[in-house]
Amino acid sequence: MNWKSLLANSAAAFQAYLGVGTVPQFNDTRVAVIGAGAAGSSFAYHLSQYNPEMNITIYEKNDYIGGRVKTIEIDGETFEQGGSIFVATNSILSDAAREFNFTTDIANNVKDDYDLGVWDGSGFVFELPRTNKYLQLLYLVRSFGLAPYWANRLKEEEVGKFLNLYSEQFFPFEDLQSAAAEAGIEPLFANWTSASEYFANNSISQKYQSQIIEALTRVNYATDLHTIHPLAALVCLEAQSKSYAVEGGNNRIFQEFVKRSNANVLLDRSVDVIAKIGDKWSVDGEYYDYVVLATPWAHSTINVYPAITIPKVDYTELHVTHVVSPIPAQYNFFGSQKTYEQLVTLPSNNSIPITSIGHARVTKNGNHVYKLFSYERLSDEYLTQILGIPLSGVWRKQWYSYPVMAPTPELARIEVAENLFYTSGMDPFISTMETNALAGKNVARLIADRKSN
Ligand SMILES: Cc1cc2nc3c(=O)[nH]c(=O)nc-3n(C[C@H](O)[C@H](O)[C@H](O)COP(=O)(O)OP(=O)(O)OC[C@H]3O[C@@H](n4cnc5c(N)ncnc54)[C@H](O)[C@@H]3O)c2cc1C
């Protein structure tokens, strides 16, 4: 029997197939969350804080907690393959790290000639020398005039509006798009205006856009300035601020969220079917009062009955490669004898599929670890050619990392059907660990409030 087609016919058929006559009623409130990434783990933790009586079950198809936040070990040290940094304004992550006593101020120990090199295919169009931050500021002003100041002003203003979503005036929000509209930032993602048009309209020089802002959008979202929406580009500017990462891996926050939620955790459990039966939702045959989809719909392969509508979102296929070598990289391939902590390629260069190369750290064993982002898998031979060094280890991970961050007129609703919630509408708006943790916390509060009313 083709059970999937049987299910598709009707919820009644589903009940019949499972041999379920009546929908069970429970004394407690049962909640299922699909996905144990930033959103799902934050949801479980915050719901348990708002209402410790809730009975929470987490389904996670991977054998680890964290989703797009994942670490590898090189020379016994931790390196991030996914979500890597957060900033001080990311209060859910910062507060959690503080509460859990995690160290987050990790200094990089590499000593390159330049902090940043921006390569356009024929040469370095911008190089930021490794020196103190005041001299770097002077250097930026000499190169770009007041453009960095004006771009920063725009960023402060718009990110400030976004941060209002955390305030009591907005939180919890039933609908992200309406909340963003009320906060005054909807035009920054919903209009068909690219970041390059936005910055040009705000008199930010072409030179600063193409040499610095675009370098940031390529490092953070592997996306060019003429395709990314203005809000995402401004978030990339925010990522220039002092950044933090949890010692031992950012996923420790999400593991701790799950642990403290006391949820029933089912790892290696991929959910196939969610169906409304009576006043409950069935998740692969188990009944719940509320279900939270905490994973991008685009790649979840979950069947929901009755069908739900979630706007289509395209994700970037991104390859993250960690390379280990006993000696520092030599950038002869790029026509330079110097070294760079962060090397970014510009889109005018079509000759290589790499968007950035970062000198991540020198391990205690003296090995240099480089992290490359690319649109395709990089072979060992190619890596040797690009970095000009022998490879003593290579780690590869392919992701659907984040939405392409193009202007998005319609974000997904949060409650996609009665008592069925979706967090990843946040992703095409701003895709970060913090914002998805906020999406999870928001749904937790919506459900907790509903139960207490
Ligand atoms: C390479 C890379 C670099 C990044 N850099 C940064 C950064 O520096 N800073 C930052 O803030 N953000 C960064 N991000 C973005 C950030 O990691 C994500 O926005 C965030 O972690 C997404 O969290 P999420 O919980 O919404 O989704 P996910 O992390 O994708 O979690 C969804 C979970 O659902 C599970 N799942 C899916 N389908 C099913 C199913 N059928 N049944 C059960 N489980 C299922 C998945 O296995 C996954 O664990 C980066 C992402 C990548 C990939």
TrEMBL record:
A Pfam match: NAD_binding_8
Matches recorded under Gene3D superfamilies: FAD/NAD(P)-binding domain
Presence of the UniProt keyword Transcription in the record: no
Domain Prenylcysteine lyase: 133-450
Single GO molecular function: prenylcysteine oxidase activity
InterPro entries: FAD/NAD-bd_sf (IPR036188), Prenylcys_lyase (IPR010795), Prenylcysteine_Oxase1 (IPR017046)
Cofactor(s) the record lists: FAD
Keyword Flavoprotein: yes
Record keywords: FAD, Flavoprotein, Glycoprotein, Oxidoreductase, Signal
Domain of life: Eukaryota
UniProt record, GO biological process: prenylated protein catabolic process; prenylcysteine catabolic process
Family as reported in the entry's similarity comment: Belongs to the prenylcysteine oxidase family.
Name the UniProt record assigns to this protein: ARAD1D05170p
Species per Swiss-Prot/TrEMBL record: Blastobotrys adeninivorans
